[in-house]
Amino acid sequence: MEALKDISDGLEQRINAYKNRLQELQKKRERIDDEIKTIKRYLELAETLYRVEADKAKIANLSKQLIAGTEKDSSLQQQPPPLVDVTDQSRESREILMGRSKYVGMSVSQAASLLLAEVNAPMHAKEIHQKLIEGGLRMRGKTPVTSIAISLARDKRFKKVAPNTFMAVLTEDSAVVNTSEYFQGKGVI
Questions:
Q1: Rounded to an integer, what distance in angstroms lies between the CA atom of residue 177 and that of residue 110?
Q2: Per-residue pLDDT of the chain (189 residues; tens, 9 = 90+)
Q3: Is the dihedral of CA 63, 65, 66, 67 positive or negative?
Q4: N or C, where is the chain less crowded by C-beta within 10 Å?
């Protein structure tokens, strides 16, 4: 009877040891699963960033080719620029190719300065926001209209004419840079 009790105690200890080891392994698996999810997210972000940068390089190359093509003598027959596969382009690249790139890469104040100079009339911050977004400007944040209003209120190139309504102040010191000059300065064109 005593031998049976010893066997039963030994088996009970072994069962408890297996249960503890199982719990440790399950916790370790949960940590590894969390790490795998995190690594997958980082990998996805890195691949997306790589595609965006590759697309930017393609567009910069296309811009250079287009400019080189326009600089040729008009009497010479120009060959059309090479076709670019746009099926896998990033959102920003598609917008540039579709002509919605007027304000891409600019700051809010630079883009608003161009916009207000073109319109030559006061605009509300909501209207400015809408036009900048349509022109390809990317804005982050929860309150972009408020950000625009604050940015323009602090900039001497703008005059506040009503609540959240601004107009461009054009002086020789604050001349508005046109889009092509801006991009040439950035090395895009």
A1: 8
A2: 888 888 999 999 999 999 999 999 999 999 999 889 888 888 888 888 888 888 888 888 887 777 776 665 444 555 555 555 544 445 555 555 555 567 888 889 999 999 999 899 999 999 999 999 888 888 888 999 999 999 999 999 999 999 999 999 876 554 444 444 444 454 544
A3: positive
A4: N
The residue ranges of every structural domain in the chain are 1-88, 99-186
Going across the sheet that includes 158-162, the strands are 123-124, 165-168, 158-162
Beta bridge partners of 124: 165
User: Three-state SS for 69?
Assistant: helix
Sign for the CA dihedral angle at 57, 59, 61, 67 comes to negative
Whether the model clears a pTM of 0.70, i.e. scores above it, the answer is no
Q: Using the 8-state DSSP alphabet, how is residue 165 labeled?
A: E
Question: Phi/psi of residue 48, each to 5°?
Answer: -65, -45
Backbone angles phi, psi at 59, to 5 degrees: -70, -40
